[in-house]
UniProtKB/TrEMBL annotation, chain A:
<dbReference type="InterPro" id="IPR003231">
    <property type="entry name" value="ACP"/>
</dbReference>
<keyword id="KW-0596">Phosphopantetheine</keyword>
<dbReference type="GO" id="GO:0005829">
    <property type="term" value="C:cytosol"/>
</dbReference>
<dbReference type="GO" id="GO:0000036">
    <property type="term" value="F:acyl carrier activity"/>
</dbReference>
<dbReference type="GO" id="GO:0009245">
    <property type="term" value="P:lipid A biosynthetic process"/>
</dbReference>
<dbReference type="InterPro" id="IPR009081">
    <property type="entry name" value="PP-bd_ACP"/>
</dbReference>
<dbReference type="Pfam" id="PF00550">
    <property type="entry name" value="PP-binding"/>
</dbReference>
<feature type="domain" description="Carrier">
    <location>
        <begin position="1"/>
        <end position="78"/>
    </location>
</feature>
<dbReference type="GO" id="GO:0016020">
    <property type="term" value="C:membrane"/>
</dbReference>
Automatic annotation (TrEMBL), chain B:
<dbReference type="InterPro" id="IPR000794">
    <property type="entry name" value="Beta-ketoacyl_synthase"/>
</dbReference>
<dbReference type="Pfam" id="PF00109">
    <property type="entry name" value="ketoacyl-synt"/>
</dbReference>
<keyword id="KW-0997">Cell inner membrane</keyword>
<keyword id="KW-1003">Cell membrane</keyword>
<keyword id="KW-0012">Acyltransferase</keyword>
<dbReference type="Pfam" id="PF02801">
    <property type="entry name" value="Ketoacyl-synt_C"/>
</dbReference>
<dbReference type="InterPro" id="IPR020841">
    <property type="entry name" value="PKS_Beta-ketoAc_synthase_dom"/>
</dbReference>
<dbReference type="GO" id="GO:0005886">
    <property type="term" value="C:plasma membrane"/>
</dbReference>
<keyword id="KW-0812">Transmembrane</keyword>
């Protein structure tokens, strides 16, 4: 999936979760700026996992600080999943 | 021991989402029991439920009152609770006059976040889908109390009591004891429920106690209860403190009685209900002759109304047939753990306004119960007998009765 598409979808999930317009969310914004608390983070992570069919490790959620962190994390996890699929099981 | 008075009330009910709206419907006899149509969860477009009416809250939009974070983290039951508590606290100016640590929140909620539990369990069981991460906070029965404490900044004791249909009357009684003894200076007491889910309605349908028409307590042709939802909250504090700060006083709580039938999980027994009423009167230092109104549990089932009438006869003897009695469930339905607090507000309004709400829906009063059921229109309250009882008789034989007194 294109990075721009991932970013757009992540922003849509965050905007929906906080009931704010999508155009008010940008990649460089922090969670503090968006008033995203720990419960929101868990909620958003759940929606992200469902949308992209990925599993965000528990220890990664704590280190997410910005919208960009989410986008980068999704791209990384998608890449890892693609590599695993391409590697035949022994 | 301190005298305890009610200085604020709030409610979200099927007959009004503020106390003034509720009061208008109560005395006009406007029912909230209505057809509910096909539920979104219905299998193959069929509810598969014998009954077609229930009492739903209409016109309540949580987004108008609560932040998105709170709406996301809560079930409708806690949303009802928070908004009703705000109404009560605002009316009494509770937070302006008491330190946060001196206030208690004592609630009754029996069903928890029922819809969240059902939806998430269905996803898991039938689609092996993941469970939403906020399911725990949405479903815990104590969530209402927690959110009220967070919302208003209350740091005193917060409790949730689960005794089925008596939950919020037990909560009111517990709060009364805490104020009277000085454990807390003030309290928000009440109850909340949002149990009108597909699974819950089907479960009640299987018990065959829900009316296929509409709840009409003490009617000869009564055929069951009508399920409801909502929240009701009352602010309690000592009379001395209320007078000192010139707070509005709507009624005094003078006694509370509790008992258990120790008999059967669904079949009530009159001895248990009678014991709770006697204990409430004794606690109030009152005699049966002082009682001018009984707001009955009156579910509209054959068993409850017959047994409750028998209990009233046991307590009041020859006077039983002269005491005005009504059940307001024919208007607001039976909201399980919340219903006792809803009926407590109805009883407070009766004492405060001097008019007794009538028992809607009755065709012919069941002649076997031999009670003075208030029919057709509100009746003026007895100017002398100024104590009213509000009865709650739960499944499992758990009984709670609060004695309220007109304040003048």
């Amino acid at each position: 999936m294109e990075e721009a598409t991932v970013e757009q979808r992540c922003i849509a999930i965050i905007a929906k979760s906080k009931l704010i317009p999508e155009d008010s969310v940008t990649r460089d914004q922090t969670f503090d700026e968006l008033a995203i608390d720990s419960l929101d983070k868990i909620n958003i992570s759940f929606e992200i996992e469902d949308t992209f069919n990925i599993q965000i490790p528990d220890d990664s959620i704590g280190s997410l600080k910005t919208v960009g962190d989410i986008v980068d994390g999704v791209i990384r996890l998608q890449h890892q999943a693609a590599v695993q699929l391409a590697t035949p099981a022994i | 021991m301190k005298r305890v008075v009610i200085t604020g009330m709030g409610c979200i009910t099927p007959i009004g989402i503020t106390v003034p709206e509720f009061e208008a419907s109560l005395f006009a006899g406007r029912t909230g029991i209505a057809e509910f149509g096909i539920l979104p969860e219905a299998v193959e477009g069929q509810n598969g439920i014998r009954f077609t009416r229930m009492a739903s809250v209409t016109g309540f939009d949580p987004d108008q009152h609560l932040s998105t974070g709170v709406v996301t983290a809560t079930n409708l039951t806690a949303q009802f609770a928070i908004v009703a508590a705000r109404q009560a606290a605002e009316q009494s100016e509770l937070m302006k006059h008491y330190a946060p640590e001196d206030i208690a929140v004592i609630l009754g909620c029996s069903c928890g976040g029922r819809s969240s539990e059902e939806i998430e369990t269905a996803k898991l069981y039938y689609r092996n889908a993941r469970v939403h991460p906020l399911t725990v906070t949405r479903t815990m029965a104590s969530a209402g109390g927690s959110h009220i404490s967070i919302d208003l900044g209350i740091t005193g004791p917060v409790l949730n009591i689960s005794t089925a249909c008596a939950s919020s009357t037990h909560a009111l009684g517990q709060a009364f004891h805490m104020i009277r003894s000085g454990v807390s200076e003030a309290a928000i007491a009440g109850g909340h429920e949002a149990p009108l889910t597909f699974g819950f309605l089907r479960a009640w349908d299987s018990m065959r106690v829900v009316s296929p028409t509409a709840c009409r307590p003490f009617s000869a042709d009564r055929d069951g209860m009508s399920l409801g939802e909502g929240a009701a909250m009352l602010v309690l504090e000592s009379l001395d403190a209320a007078l000192a700060r010139n707070a509005p006083i709507f009624a005094e709580i003078v006694g509370f009685g509790m008992s258990a039938d120790a008999h059967h999980i669904t079949q009530p027994q009159s001895d248990g209900a009678a014991l709770a009423m006697r204990k409430a009167l004794k606690d109030a230092g009152a005699s049966p002759d002082d009682v001018g109104y009984i707001n009955a549990h009156g579910t509209g089932t054959q068993a409850n109304d017959t047994v409750e009438a028998a209990a009233i006869h046991k307590v009041f003897g020859d006077r039983a047939a002269q005491i005005p009695v009504s059940s307001t469930k024919s208007l607001h339905g039976h909201s399980i753990g919340a219903t006792g607090a809803v009926e407590a507000i109805a009883t407070v309004l009766a004492l405060h306004t001097g008019q007794l709400p009538f028992n809607a829906g009755v065709t012919t009063v069941d002649p076997t119960i031999n009670l003075d059921i208030i029919l057709n229109e509100p009746r003026p309250a007895d100017p002398v007998r100024d104590i009213a009882l509000s009865n709650s008789l739960a499944f499992g034989g758990l009984n709670a009765v609060v004695a309220l007194k007109r304040y003048r």
